[in-house]
Amino acid sequence: MPDPTISDRRKDEASAWFVALQEKIIAAFELLEEEAEGPFAKPDMAAGRFSTKLWRRTNETGGDGGGGRMALLAGRVFEKMAVHTSTVFGAFPPEFAKQIPGAEEDPRFWASGVSLIAHPWNPNVPVVHMNTRYVETSRAWFGGGADLTPVLDSRRAQSDPDAQDFHAAMKRACNDAQNPAADYEKYKQWCDEYFYLKHRSEPRGIGGIFYDYLDCPAGDDPVFAKNFAFTRAVGMGFLSIYPELVRRNMALVWTSADREEQLVRRGRYVEFNLLYDRGTIFGLKTGGNVEAILSSLPPLVMWP
Amino acid sequence: MPDPTISDRRKDEASAWFVALQEKIIAAFELLEEEAEGPFAKPDMAAGRFSTKLWRRTNETGGDGGGGRMALLAGRVFEKMAVHTSTVFGAFPPEFAKQIPGAEEDPRFWASGVSLIAHPWNPNVPVVHMNTRYVETSRAWFGGGADLTPVLDSRRAQSDPDAQDFHAAMKRACNDAQNPAADYEKYKQWCDEYFYLKHRSEPRGIGGIFYDYLDCPAGDDPVFAKNFAFTRAVGMGFLSIYPELVRRNMALVWTSADREEQLVRRGRYVEFNLLYDRGTIFGLKTGGNVEAILSSLPPLVMWP
E-assigned strands of B156-298? Predict the structure, then answer.
C-alpha cells in the first residue's frame, strides 16, 4: 500500500470533493425544479426536493466498512433522479480481486466516488449519467465520465445542438486551462465503445467521455494533482452543461407518442445497466447497497 | 456425434413435440381470452389473438442455421404473452463451447425447444414461465421446467391454493403413471435455487420445477423415451394447471395499489432475466434472436 500519510491525505481530498460535488449538484437540480413553469406531467406538480439517506456498509466477511449518502429526487422536471456518494473499504472476494489492478496479491481496497443519473419527465430532455471515483489497492487511480442519452429518435443525432454542446463541454473539461490536457479523443472513443448495446447493435446515447485506471503512483504528487484536477473538471463540466440542456428543453410540449418512445428507450437503459454495466453488476454481486445501485433504473419502462 | 439415423429420429420427434405443444398453448390461451368477461383494464377490450412470426437464424460465422416461430399475444387477459419454438444448429463460439457438456472438443450443437412467459393484466393472476428443450452436442439431453410468480405479496405464500395446486401439478408431471418417476424433490429444489435474486435475497416466485442435462446416451432408446415422456408431461402438466389458475383469478377486481405492486414486482422479473437467467444472457451474447429472447420482458414496469 502507498505511504499511509500521503495516502490518507489523498483519500481525504478525493472523498471531500465527491461530497462537495454532490452538494453542488443537489443545489443545481433543485434550482431547475424551482424555475420550471411547465408543462408538467400533472398540472399541479410542486418543485421537487431531494431526500437524503445515510447508509453504512456492512459485510458478512467482517472487516469491511464505510458507507455513503444517497440523495433521491422525484420532482416535476425529474421523474426520478439519484446522486450518491460513497466511501468504502475492505477486501475484495478472491474471484474479484484478480480482476482489479493491484489487488491480485493483496485484496484490500479503498474507493470513494460520486454517481448521478437523471430521468426527466419531458421526453425532450435527455437522460444523463455522470460518475467519478478514486480507488486505491496496491495501486491508485481515478476513473469516471459522463454520457448523454437523448430519448427521442429525432434528438439522437450527433448534429443536434444538445449533443454538440455536451461534447464541447466534455472536451473543455479535458482541456481546461488549469490542467495539463487529458486525452479527449481517447476518452470519447472509450465512451462510445463502453456505452454500446451489443445485442441490439445500437449505442446507448450520443456519448460523452469515459476514463479509467488513470494511474496515480505513490510518491508522485504532481500526477495525482493533475488527475484529481481533471476529475474535478469532469464534474464541473457536467454542471456547466447539463442544467443548460434541461433549461432549453424543459418547456417544450410533448405528445403521448413522445412519452411512449421515452418509456421504450428507457428499456434500453435497463438492458444496458443490468447486462453490461460493470459498476452495477460488480456492486450487486459483491454485496453493495442494492437500493443505491438500482436507483439508476428508470421509474417507468415499457417493453411493448 | 451420435449415430445420425438415431439422432435424426430423436431430433424429429423432439422438435415436432415442441411445435405441437406451442399449438396447444396457443389454443388454450386464446380460449381464456374468449371466455373472460372482465373486469378489463379498459372496458372495451377485445379477446386477444396470437400473431406469429417465422424467423431464420443467420450467423456471421456461416454454417449455422435453423430458425423458429414466435407467437405473441397482447390481449385483455394477458397484457403480454409469448410462446416461441426454435430449432437451431451450428457451432458454439470457443469461449462458450467449454461451458457446454459434450462441446469441449467438438463445438457443434443442435437444439430445439419451446419457451413461454405470460404477463397477465390482472394482478391477481400469477405470472408463469415454462420452457423445455432437447440439446445434442457429442452428448444429448433434455432440460426445462416451469415456475409460477404471483405478483401480489398477499398471494406469494406457499399456503396459497394457487401455489399448492401448481406444485401438485408439477409433482404429477414427475410421477405420471405413464412414465417412470422423475426426481420431483430434486427438481423442485433446483427451481428454488435457480429462480432466486441473490442481490435482494428474495425468490422470484413460489417455485415449480427446473431440470437440466437429463442425459440421453446414444444407443439407449428406453432412456431417451423416458426422458422425452417426462418432458412432454411437464408441458402437459403446465397446460393442466395454469389455465385453471387464470380462470379462478381473472374475474377478481383489483385496485390501483394492486396494479402498482404488480408493476414493481415485474421489475424483479426484469432484474432476474437480465442479471441471472442463463438462457437470456447466453442467447443475447451468442447472436440469438433478440426480439424472441427479450419478449420475456414485461410490457410495463416500475422502479419507483
Answer: 196-197, 202-203, 207-215
Instruction: Please tell me whether residue A64 adopts helix, strand or coil conformation.
Output: coil
> Nearest residue of A to residue B290 by CA position?
A199
C-alpha cell belonging to residue B233? 408431461
Q: Decide the pairing of beta strands B127-136 and B108-120.
A: antiparallel
Cβ-contact B177, B230 below 8 angstroms = no
Give the range of the structural domain holding residue A268, as residue numbers without chain letter. Answer: 4-296
DSSP B11-36: HHHHHHHHHHHHHHHHHHHHHHHHH-
Banded pLDDT at B63 (limits 50, 70, 90): low
What amino acid is encoded at B300 in this protein?
A: L
CATH number, position A133: 3.40.1500.10
Please state the rounded mean pLDDT for residues B189-203: 96
Nearest to B145 by CA among B162, B124, B167, B123: B167
* Distance of alpha carbon A176 from alpha carbon A183, whole angstroms: 12
Residues of B in contact with A284 (CB under 8 A): 198-199, 275
How many domains does chain A divide into?
A: 1
Residue from B201, B35, B47, B205 nearest B117 by CA: B205
Q: Are B70 and B25 in contact (CB under 8 A)?
A: no
Higher pLDDT: A95 or B55? It is: B55
Interface of A with B (CB under 8 A): 74, 80, 198-200, 263, 267, 270-271, 274-275, 281, 284-285, 290, 294-295, 297-304
Report which of B279, B294, B276 is spatially closest to residue A274, judged by C-alpha positions. Answer: B276
Domain membership of residue B302 (yes or no) is no
Q: At what angle do helices A221-249 and A161-175 cross, to 10 degrees?
A: 160
Residue A293's closest chain B neighbor by CA? B199
Beta strands at B207-215 and B140-149: parallel, antiparallel or unpaired:
antiparallel
d(CA B47, CA B159): 32
Residue A16 included in any domain:
yes
Nearest CA in chain B to A298: B303
The answer to whether A84 is a known catalytic residue is: no
Tell me if A303 is assigned to some domain.
no
Of the listed ranges A132-141, B185-194, B216-225, B283-292, the one predicted with least confidence: B283-292
CB spacing of B267 vs A304 below 8 angstroms: no
Give A247→chain B minimum CA distance, Å: 25
Separation of alpha carbons B238 and B231, rounded Å? 11
What's the rounded Cα separation, in Å, for the pair A181 and A174? Answer: 6
CB distance B30 to B47 below 8 Å: yes
Q: Hey, are the CB atoms on A299 and B300 less than 8 Å from each other?
A: no
Q: Which residues of B touch A272 (CB under 8 A)?
A: none
DSSP state of A133: E
Give the phi and the psi of residue A277 in degrees, each rounded to 5.
Answer: -65, 120
Domain membership of residue A302 (yes or no) is: no
Angle ∠(A284,A286,A292) on CA atoms, nearest 5: 45
Q: For the residues B84-113, what does the mean pLDDT come to?
A: 89
Contacts of A225 (CB under 8 A, 6+ apart): none
Q: Under the phi-then-psi rule, with left for phi > 0, alpha for psi from -120 to 50, and beta for the rest, what region is A144?
A: left
The rounded distance, in Å, linking the Cα atoms of A33 and B201 is 36
